[in-house]
Automatic annotation (TrEMBL):
PANTHER family named in the record: SLR0284 PROTEIN
InterPro entries linked: Phage_holin_4_2
Keywords noted in UniProt: Membrane, Transmembrane, Transmembrane helix
Sequence intervals crossing the membrane: 28-46, 53-77, 89-110
Presence of keyword rRNA-binding: no
Taxonomy, superkingdom: Bacteria
Organism: Maribacter confluentis
Designated name of the protein: Phage holin family protein
A Pfam cross-reference name: Phage_holin_4_2
Length: 115
């Protein structure tokens, strides 16, 4: 149940960012849900491979290259999903940063108080 809520909240964050950022577009809410699922799968499957392959550059930049890897994951999702478009790598970078920020806010709402 929590996984479905996380995906729906991520889709909501994608929709919000598509309305706020001028070079990011999402056609429908269902497309936003697909974007959330595909981004999750790409982060699980592709991102670790990219991190290992670019480890020397990541170490030299003190981890800042991970932001570029996140932007590449966003652009890969753009190529895989019809109805989702990101202008260029700079907009993907901004989208990635803001998506992480919004998701952290939304996911704190799901945490249960154990007190």
């Amino acid at each position: 149940m929590k996984l479905i809520l996380r995906i729906l909240l991520s889709a909501l964050a994608v929709l919000i960012l598509a309305h706020v950022l001028p070079n990011v577009s999402v056609d429908t809410f269902m497309t936003a849900v697909i974007v959330a699922v595909v981004l999750s799968l790409l982060n699980i499957l592709v991102k670790p491979i990219l991190v290992v392959l670019t480890l020397p550059v990541t170490i030299l930049t003190l981890g800042l290259f991970l932001l570029i890897i996140n932007a590449i994951i966003i652009l890969l999702a753009d190529k895989l999903i019809d109805g989702f478009a990101v202008g260029n790598i700079w907009w993907a970078l901004i989208f990635s940063l803001l998506l992480s920020f919004l998701q952290s806010i939304f996911f704190t709402l799901l945490k249960e108080d154990n007190a």
